[in-house]
Amino acid sequence: MKKKLFWIAIGQFISACAYCQILNANNLVATGLGGLATVFNRLTGADVQLLLIIMALPIFIWAFFSYSKKQIFYAAFSYFMFTFYVGIVNRILPQLHTDPIAAAISGGVVGGIAGGIIMKQRVANGPESIVALYLKEKKGLSIGSYYLIINTVVIFSSIIYGNMTMIIYSLICTFVQSVVTDKLIIGFEKYYNVNIMSDQYLEITQFIRNDLNRGATFIQGMDTSNVKKKMLIQAVVNQQELIAIKDFVKAFHDDSFICASISNNIIGRGFDVE
C-alpha cells in the first residue's frame, strides 16, 4: 500500500507540473476536471485549487455510498495530491513559456509519463475514473468512449475564451499524452506472435529453442492446397528474433509460410512486459 501511495504521489507531482508549468503557461487546455477548472478560472478568475475541490466533492460524496471504500480512498488520495501540488509547483518551479507545438508535445510527454506511473498502480486516479466505472457498469459505455467524450467537451469549451488554433494544439497534446501513457504501461519493446507452417518444423523448432532460447508450441494443421497434414509452430518473439526466424526459414527455399502479428501484455518466463 505504501508503495502505491508513493508512486501515486510522484505521478501526481509530475502531472501537476505538466498542468501548471506547461499547459496553463501556454494557454493549452488539459483534460478532465483540470481542464474544466482552467476554463472556469479564465472566465471568472476563481482559484484553480478551489474549483478542483468544488467540482470533485459531490462526486466523492456520491461514490462514498456506492463503491468500495478502498477504491474511493485511492481515488481521493490521488486527486488530493494533484490539487495540493497545483498550489505549490508555481512557487518552486519556473513556467515553460514556448511556442504552442513545443508546449503541446512536451506537455503531452510529461503528462503521459505521469499517467503511466499512476495507472501502473491499478487504482482509480480521481473522480473522473469513478464516473467512468459507473457508466461502464450501469450504462454499458466503455471507459475509452467516456474519456473521449468528456475530454472533447472540455477542450472545445475553451473556445469561449480561446481560439480554434489553441484547441487543435490541446488535442495534439492529448493524443501525445495517451500514446506515452500506453507505451509506459505496455512497454517499448515489440513482441510478435509468430505462426509458421512448414515441413521443416523440427529444424525450425530446434532453432527457436536452442538459438533464440524461446519456447514453441506444435499445433497440427492441414495444407488445403494439397490436403496434406502439416505441423503449425507457434511462438512469441521480439523484433530481432522475428528477423532471425524469417532468415532461417527462407534458407529452406520451400513453401514454408510465416504469419506474424504484434502481441501486447506478454506475461511469463523470458518476458518482462506487464
UniProtKB/TrEMBL annotation:
It comes from the Bacteria. It is found in: Cell membrane. It is a multi-pass membrane protein. Keywords: Cell membrane, Membrane, Transmembrane, Transmembrane helix. The chain crosses the membrane at residues 44-65, 72-89, 101-119, 140-161, 167-188. PROSITE patterns: PROKAR_LIPOPROTEIN. The keyword Transit peptide does not apply. The keyword Membrane applies. InterPro entries: N-reg_PII/ATP_PRibTrfase_C (IPR015867), UPF0750_membrane (IPR051461), YitT (IPR003740). This is Membrane protein. It comes from Lacrimispora amygdalina.
